[in-house]
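Sample entry was shown:
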Amino acid sequence: MLAESLGPDPLASGAKWKPSGKNIKDPGIHQRQRGGRYRRQASSQRSCFLGLELKPELVWEDWDLGGEFTETLVLKNIHSKLQKLHVRPPLSKFFTLIPQIIVLSPGTSFSMPISFRPLQRCEYEDSIEFQGKDVSFQVCLRATIPCHALEVPDSVLLPFCAVQNSTTTTFLLKNVSKLQTCFQWECTAPFQLSPEQGLLKPGQECHITVLFQPQEALVYQQQANCKFGEEGDKADSCCTVLLQGLAKYPCLQLRNPGTMDEKEQCGKELHFGSVAVGQSLQKHFYIFNPSPVTASFSLSQLSSGAPLLGSLFSCDVPRGKVAPGGSLRATVTYTPAVVDSVSVEYLSLKCRGALNETLIKLTGNCVGPNVSLSSSVVDFGCVEEGGAVVQTVAVDPMFLDLIGTCHSELQQPAILKPEHLVLYKLHWYHRQDLQDTPSDMQQDHNVHLDQQGALCPVEEQSPQKPDSAGVVYRNPMEEYYQSCLGCMDPLSSSSSLSSLHVSLMPSELLFNYKMSSILSTSSTSSQPVSITNHTREKLSLVWTVAQDSPFTVSPPLCELAPLKCTSFRVTYDPKQLNTLHGAQLECFAFYKDNQDLEEQVLLPPWCVTVRVIGHSFQPGKEHFIPNCSLMPPRVVFPALSILSHQTVLLQNCGDLPLTFCLDHSLNPALAESVFVVPSCGLIQPGSHQILVLRTTPTEDCPKQGFSLHLRLNAAKHTKELTVVSVVEQMCMSLEGDNSLYFQPTAVGSQTQRSHHIRNLSRLPLRFQWSIPEPEQELISVEPDAGELHPNESSVQIWSFSPLAEKTYTLKPTLTFWPIQTPGCNKSHLTLNVVGMGAKGSIEAEKAVLDVGETLVGSYRSIQVPLVNNSPCPVSFSLSVQQILLDEELTYDPESEPNALQLDCDRGTIASHATMLLRSTVRPHRRAQYLWTISYQMLNASGFVSSPPQTVCEVRAHGVFPTLQVIDVWGGGSVGSLSKVHLWKLFSLDRLNEHMLSNPSPAELIYRTPTRHSLSSSPSIFTKVLLDFNFSASPLTSEPSTFVLMFHNPGSIPVNWAFLFPEDQQIELEYWAETGEFSSTELHRMKVQDNHLFSISPRSGTLLPGQQRAVHFTYSHDFAGTDRFPVVFKLSYGREILLNFQGVTVERDRPYLHFASKRHVFTSVTIGNCSPPRQMYELINGGAVPVRYEVDMAVLSQLQVDNFNHPLLCCLNPEGVVLPGKTAMLEWIFSPLEAKVYHMDIPIHVQDGHSTLVRFKGCGLNSPTLGSTTPFGCSDTKASEPCVQRLPFPGQVLFLSEDSVCLGDIPVCSRSSRILFLTNVSHTDTVHYTWDQQSNQQVVQIHPDRGSLCPGESALCTLTFTSTDYPTAYQLDIICQVIQEAALTRYHDALQRWEEEKARQQDEFTITDKDLTQSPEVLIDKEPVAAPVRKGPPLRKYKTLPPICASANCEAVGTMCTKLTRAERRAQRETAKAWRCPEPPQPAQLHLWVTAHSHLLPEYPPHFPNQSNEPYRCPSSVKPQQPEASSSSTSLPAGLPPPTHGPDRDITMHVLTSLLSGILDDPAFTQSLITLASKPITYQLRKTSPSSLPSSLPPPPCPTPSHPTHQRQVLLSGTVGQKEQHNTVDSEGTAGCWRNRRPTQNTPHTEHVPADMSEDVLLNTLQNLMIEAVRGELVLTAHPRTVILPPFSTRSRRTSKAMAEEDKVDLRNRKESAGT
């Protein structure tokens, strides 16, 4: 794409760069040195000339002054013949060789030494020439100067580069000279070249690296300059390389492969779901690069309050690059650490150079182990003492109750069952007061036994004492802690003395451990343990100890009175040294009287435990080295001030036992705030211990946490556990510094904005927006409530709907609190919302948009710019109302389809912005459309809230494609016909009328040319039928050529086509064609196959205002009448059937061609004594003269039928029309009544057919004075254009106007017009000649002949002299044009022919070698062909001969007549003859002249506007008297041509010179000033203003002809562009002065002849026209009036000074005119 926009291929191999420094003076040296390398390469190759192989040039490169250097030229003859060459030595003295003649045999070589002796250090060039027998060739000799030269490419195109990135490429720098060259690059950003400088040896190459580092997205083109030359500062040569680069903004997209919906492919959230603690889950996404440049990116976590445990998400792609159209897979791993927590983090995708930053949300939920047991109670039943029972439990819940009953021979207590445990717990949870004894439980009325025998609480019937108020629930974790501690739990809110039955102190004993702790540690072998009874009954205490345990308790059992305490001693007596021991000692306490109770109220015993550890290592003995793990090493408690617990796992990974105990000595205050259960113990190899940590976080705890130390194996080995137990304040952030600003909003509408809130704390928060009730109508938010996990953000959509035009300041409140403690104190944040209500409106940039003309049925897209100048966005709804402006159209507005469709009828325009309203215009008919676009405001709900208001009006004109024929030209056989006749032959008036009218629906069935018919005669969908008459011409004559100039007058392009029948027929396979052809089809096939009618071009497109010439040709190859239907189709427009008609006449047949058998006479008033003479044209279309005769009997009968009045008279009823010529039948139509006459007159042709012509004439009543005149040449006026605007193809001479209408003129008057002939060729000189023989009495053109150089123009004066009888003139004046080049060729050929003819008359040659050959015979003219023998007539069903067009076929009437032997011999002799060259056929220009002359008595009353003009009758024409004209119907005698002898020319030029001399004479000028003061002795006759126009329009292309007595003017400008500046009517100016009456005050005018005065004034007007063309005179300028001061004596005194100024002014004007 870039290469197309920037020109040629920038990476193409470059040319050699040569020095361009100041030391080089001759610019030609660069070209020679630059091309020297190529010539040297060529010289190394051998070429072949005339069969000789040699080098085309010799080059001397290494040379010095004062020496002689020799090169050898080797010639080798590779031809099969002997070669003899003459050598022409070099012309200069610097190259020398020995001149000689070289003779080379086939296959031999010859060496020629050539010496070079230089005298100065410069380049030398010469040549030697080898001359053979007929031709010669040269070898170039050159001596060059070594210079620095580098070869670099013209341009270097770098790869596409992303903004703020870089790309590189390399190109080759080569030293192509034989000198060591130093180079230095100069280049500016964003390009950088490396290496920037260097030194190249001869022929050495260097790769230059181009670095492209753009900072903006632009197209970069920059020249890199390389200075090179000698080392140091002498590098004065320079070459350049065009560096081209295109920078684009990078763009990256995130795609989630798990999303199938395309709309969610660019999703920005990666959800991991629930993941078990300690496990990991991976998910991936793709980074896609849709841009055409490589994008560099980085993935990083969004900066926020980092979690204490660090990031739980990790990405394996922190940075990278993505190729254009490529993608990169990124994997994210989620490793949760805190159970029941939701982790939210954000990854930021930053792309260098991109315009935006993309965030991807990572979410995951951490879940812990879900453990459960198959039963919450395991009952071992009754077991004998010393026995064992095994029960299986499926692990699930965390806490399990174990019960069992032991019987001995002495003691057999009641068997403890699970229902006893349930009864006890139920009683404990629902008691109000302390009830410890079984008797109290029996008396408790709140419980009862269910059907299974278990105690259940009784539902309270009395509302005054609800039991729920005193219920205290303990969770299993609290029970577990209390049982492990053996005493009251200080952190539990439900722990109290009332909840304890038995307590034990201490709960853990350490033996042989030396450490400071609250635990009982001693190195002795026994330690005390105390148990306290908190009940009001007597308890029995029993210790259970394993038999092989090193720990013993004494006494093993005892009784304990109520509320009393007793002590026991635990003894450590290890049986094995140097080892570790540990145990859990259990003491069961039960009521002394429990065995006497009933089974229903049996209470379970209580169990207290003591954990003991010890070691038996002797002093100096090394303890076991622990091998364990602690997971996790960091424990984080919820940041709330509530009791919570966490668990850690201590795993013994070694093969030896492991003991641990909690060491509080390092940080006793913080360590004591966390309770660890158990705090000591023994872990067997491969086993583990779960440590439960309980604490209540506080605000003064360190944020980073503190350490707990576990001492291992009673040695110095420790394990550190970090505990974070700090209370954090809730923190929520609002985007935009707690402020939200709305743009001005239209009253009643709504504006929305997004706003982000984010949870910056480690607590999951719940939030709720609260908006005051008065403000709820103005603003709203979605969502208004929700939950935010730590580090999570939420997008809030705020809506603002103002109710009035003012500024609003609103303060909604955000309330948020932790999810775990909904009842705690809540935090609040206030958002400051500012919005303004405004009044909105929209308007269009243009109140009226004129689309112009649009093709009916087509689509046209338009854009209506809608502007919102208000400060707020406007939501609107549009509507369109359509009106047709044509008054003549009748339509139903409701059913009429709307031709203007809006792409969108609703939308929103931002404030002070413009929106392009795209619409489609599709006119359905030819009419003027007016659409009114209105809008209505929309409220927030999308409903209309205002009345319609007009935005703009759109106007369009539905049109059909139209064409118009503006000019016609004939060539070939119809070249002699006038344009008026050609116009009528092709019915061009009707054609233009139909092309400018509307098509019918049938014509639009196929809007474009389409093959739609299976028949050879396709169906016609139009009723318009026109005849294109190609006239008639003899057989084998030149084709009749019509050239029509088509013009597109509309404003839309027009596609047009001429469709032959074959163009509309669907082509079928041969087997599908069935049936026989009719005679009409066979005739069409003959016409079509022989190309009798041809059109060029047959189709095309005309843009608005464009013109195109189309050639129509009819070939006269076969005698007869040919007809051929052609459809003229305008795409989406008219379809016209053209009936091509042409007649080819046998060469011996007389034939008159009638363009039309109807003729309309000019209307004539009844009672006219001298009706006008009118013309009817006859054309001889054959090759022999035609004698015609008008049937006078019909005219006589017509006179008899009209009361013996000569209604119609023919003045020349008989005559002869020469071949190819025309004859004018002169008629006098004298109506008797005011009606329309139809007269059918037969015209007979001798030896031919008769033709009946219908003449139509109209009689009019006599007009009254001042009424509209019936006269005029409207009936005779040519309908074709009078001005040719464009030359036809091949036309070299251009006539400024093709027709001259003189209008109504009196008889015996003279009128003149000025015409211009222009040679539009740029190379050819043309000669022109006016043919005036047939119209010499009426029309004269001066000059009548001349020549024009290329681009030159000539001024011609047409003088029209009407005869003394009223006549309707229709004259065709022909100007013959011959190109000088063709004339020169003719004269040259004629001279050669005459020389050959003279030679053959004096010489003859006798030879016996070939008597059959005869020399060419010279003949003056082509011999007349022998009479052709006509064959027998063809039968009706005879097989037709092959259809072929032969130019040599001269058969008339048949196509296959055989020639006789004599005829064939005559043809052969004719082919051998050298005919006399014929002069070139001149081209013809036709000038159509029309006028209507009237008698002088009738002229003033009928033409009062022109009666004031004076007329003069020429002396050679005698005016006809009115009384004579009333009775005479004969024609007046012809006018003799006006004389233009040398006497008259001399007199005219003498007078012109005298007038110029008199004006230049200061004495004469002074006399005129003096005469001004004398009284006036005569009074000039006042003329009407209409007789002297104020200005004369200049012709379009006027330059005078070549005569020397006229002023020469060069052509400038385009020929024929302004038809209004074409003519100068001398009858309306002083150029005529017709029949001016002498008055008594002007006797001196008789001394000057009237003709001479007219010529002088006419010449003056012509000179003025020429000056206007030159630009020396502006005829269209406004007249400038100089107001002179009143005449006084002071003015008389200054008259002399004024005379001097006038003299100087006249001299200056004369000099300027001369230049």
